[in-house]
Design a protein that fits this description.
About 45% of the residues lie in helices and about 10% in strands. The protein has about 475 residues and is an alpha/beta fold. The protein has 2 domains: about 25-130, DNAb Helicase, Chain A (Orthogonal Bundle), CATH 1.10.860.10; about 195-465, 3-Layer(aba) Sandwich (Rossmann fold), CATH 3.40.50. A 9-stranded mixed β-sheet has the order 3-2-4-5-1-6-7-8-9, sandwiched between helices. Mean pLDDT is about 80; it is low at about 1-10, about 160-170 and about 460-465.
């Protein structure tokens, strides 16, 4: 384009576009309300004053609403008096215009539909306004990154998705009972919506497994096996056919895949890194495990220092393209706040709240890995508690389930060899079930967890002394 040429003028129809609205529907709703205040019960859950296009209609609806909610009659005269008391009577056209509205009502039986039309036009106007806001932000991003602008655009559009539906539907006891029976039957038939972890002892404590919208925190000191536990769960969920997203900010994608192959093939991880050590018989297992991995719906990203906006964008895109049954984030300590000038606790608080909101939005459980602070090392036995969550107390508040990984032999190497594989998975918080300690086995060679089938080696506690 030749920049010296003058800009072409906008087409007149485009320049004079009128926002979507229906004056007829607005007049019908207002007239019906003043003729029969009982109509409020049929439309009060659907409309607010801001849904009306004309300012005079917004004022009228507000006056009617204030009278009805105060259990006072709302007719042409009382509404006019209310508007006079607020100084808005002349702005709406006086008593003459209010009287006209009471005479403009095609059919009171269709008032719910008239209200729906008003609401639908309101949503369209909001969509136009949101589009203009997005375009303005894109043309003038200021100090925001493109990712920030994109995330805000997504949130703005998605926020309009639920508009138009009743905002507060009451459920009767009959409907609630029928829904309960359907849910019970689904659970009995094995069609519940929970996602098992693959570790029976944990699933029993979680009443079956993780549920949609839950944030499940896996916490522990370094080298306790947080990532190993998360990948054990990821592999099990993928085997059920549910797509899984793994945001690995600590390990590159290649290392994640190496670990997955080791878990699947049961070939020691050090041999995966040094293929010359693989025995002849193990090559077949390696090939079989690789073919299995090719068919599992696991998607890995190793982008580092993600903000909650970037996590939201990546998760939404994955769900849109491939579906999503579980999201694993390794780990929250490597994430950044959107305001880099804020202190670390404030940044992590924003991230924690954002992850909880994202779990509810996506309707899937989110596995969130977290580090513990060094206070745990000052405690005999070093068993973690909720107060040990590092840097941010918001994690404890926002999480639905918190599982601590504790391996006694790792912190007390003088224990006998029978303690080497033993691990404790301590459920420190569980909104929908019990808390407590369950036993698990850490398979060090392939770095994954399985159920502990025997009794814990408690006899060694007495002989070695000290609290474990």
């Amino acid at each position: 384009m030749n920049m010296s040429e003058p800009f072409e003028p906008l087409d007149e129809p485009t320049y004079l576009r009128v926002p979507p609205h229906s004056l007829e529907a607005e007049c019908a709703v207002l007239g019906a309300l003043m003729l029969d205040n009982g109509v409020w019960d049929r439309i009060g859950d659907l409309l607010t004053a801001d849904d009306f296009y004309r300012n005079k209609h917004r004022l009228l609806f507000g006056a009617i609403a204030s009278l009805v909610n105060a259990n006072k009659p709302a007719d042409a005269v009382t509404v006019f008096e209310r508007l006079q008391s607020t100084g808005n009577a002349a702005e709406v056209g006086g008593l003459a215009y209010i009287n006209e509205l009471t005479q403009y009502l095609p059919s009171a039986a269709n008032v719910r539909r008239y209200a729906e039309i008003v609401r639908e036009r309101s949503v369209l106007r909001q969509l136009v306004a949101a589009s203009d806001e997005i375009a303005t932000a894109a043309f003038n991003p200021g100090d925001k990154t493109a990712a920030d602008v994109l995330d805000h655009a997504q949130q703005t559009i998605f926020a309009l998705g639920d508009h138009g539906a009743p905002r507060d539907e009451w459920q009767s006891s009959e409907d609630g009972a029928l829904e309960f029976l359907d849910a019970i039957q689904a659970r009995h038939d094995g069609n519940d919506d929970f996602t098992p972890t693959g570790l029976k002892n944990i699933d029993d404590m979680l009443n079956g497994g993780m549920r949609p919208g839950q944030v499940v925190v896996i916490a522990g000191r370094p080298s306790m096996g947080k990532t190993a536990l998360a990948l054990s769960i990821v592999e099990h969920v993928a085997d059920t056919g549910k797509p899984v997203g793994v945001l690995s900010m600590e390990m590159p994608k290649g290392e994640v895949q190496n670990r997955r192959v080791s878990i699947r093939s049961r070939i020691p991880f050090h041999k995966i890194l040094r293929p010359e050590r693989i025995d002849g018989g193990e090559w077949g297992r390696l090939t079989e495990a690789t073919e299995t991995l090719r068919r599992t719906p696991v998607y890995v990203s190793d982008q580092t220092a993600l903000t909650i906006n970037q996590v939201r964008s990546k998760a939404r895109a994955l769900k849109r393209r491939h579906g999503l049954g579980l999201l694993a984030i390794d780990y929250i300590g490597l994430m950044e706040g959107t305001d880099r000038r804020a202190n670390r606790a404030t940044q992590l608080g924003e991230v924690s709240r954002g992850i909880k909101a994202l779990a509810k939005e996506l309707g899937v459980p989110i596995l969130l890995l977290a580090q513990l602070n060094r206070e745990v090392e000052k405690r005999p036995g070093m068993r973690p508690i909720l107060a040990d969550l590092r840097e941010c107390g918001d994690i404890e508040q926002d999480a639905d389930i918190i599982v601590f990984v504790h391996r006694p032999f790792h912190v007390k190497p003088d224990l006998g060899p029978e303690w080497t594989p033993y691990a404790e998975l301590i459920i420190g918080k569980n909104r929908s079930g019990a808390c407590g300690l369950v036993s698990a086995q850490y398979v060090g060679e392939t770095m994954h967890f399985i159920d502990w089938l025997d009794a814990p080696p408690t006899s060694q506690v007495r002989t070695k002394g000290g609290d474990l």
